[in-house]
Amino acid sequence: LALCFDVPTAVLKSREAKTFDRRNVVLQTLSVPDDKTVLHALRIMDREKLTICAATSLELSGDLGGAVAVGVVAVADLKLVLETGQYHVLEYSIDDFLAWRKQVVTIDSAKRDRQRSLGRFNVVSCDHHETLHVLARQLLASKLQRIFLSSHEIARIVGIVSSRDILIEVLDQLVQTSTLSSRMDGNLRDRVRSQKDGH
Fold this sequence. Notes:
The protein is an alpha/beta fold. Helix content is 51%, strand content 15%. It has a 3-stranded mixed sheet. Strands 4-5-6 form a 3-stranded mixed sheet. Helix 3 links the parallel strand 1 and strand 2. The longest helix is centred in the C-terminal third of the chain and has 36 residues. It is elongated and about 80 Å long.
């Protein structure tokens, strides 16, 4: 909705997405190593209040900061587990689970589009050099609750962002801009009234 109005759009265009760059903690707290279990990933998502979690390769990630994503595990994957009744897959390693999920998923147009949108990092991501406006537009276009922030320089995932995160980040600036705009509108109205009364 904010993208439809000039002031919020201007605010979003004035801010960089790198404000959400958490490369120093993404590997330790916001992702799950691909050799851990799905249950481990669900615990991380619960602890961090996330709906998705990057599945990462510790070997490929190294010590540059950020994480190399090999896939994504989501709370929504539980629906697939429930639909199939194959509860034992919750004990699978992330690698094995990703292979299982790929095999089980019935390819319909929405799921096929989502698979296509996974791009370079095996996740939907936006570069940290982009503006919050680009980040918000990509989040809307993906129809996901959260997307990953990436760094093309180090070829790593460096954060995870939701629309709520973006709103919280710009809320003060929006309120200030709105208050200033209201004051200016009020002053303009007063001047117009005084000019009408004076003439």
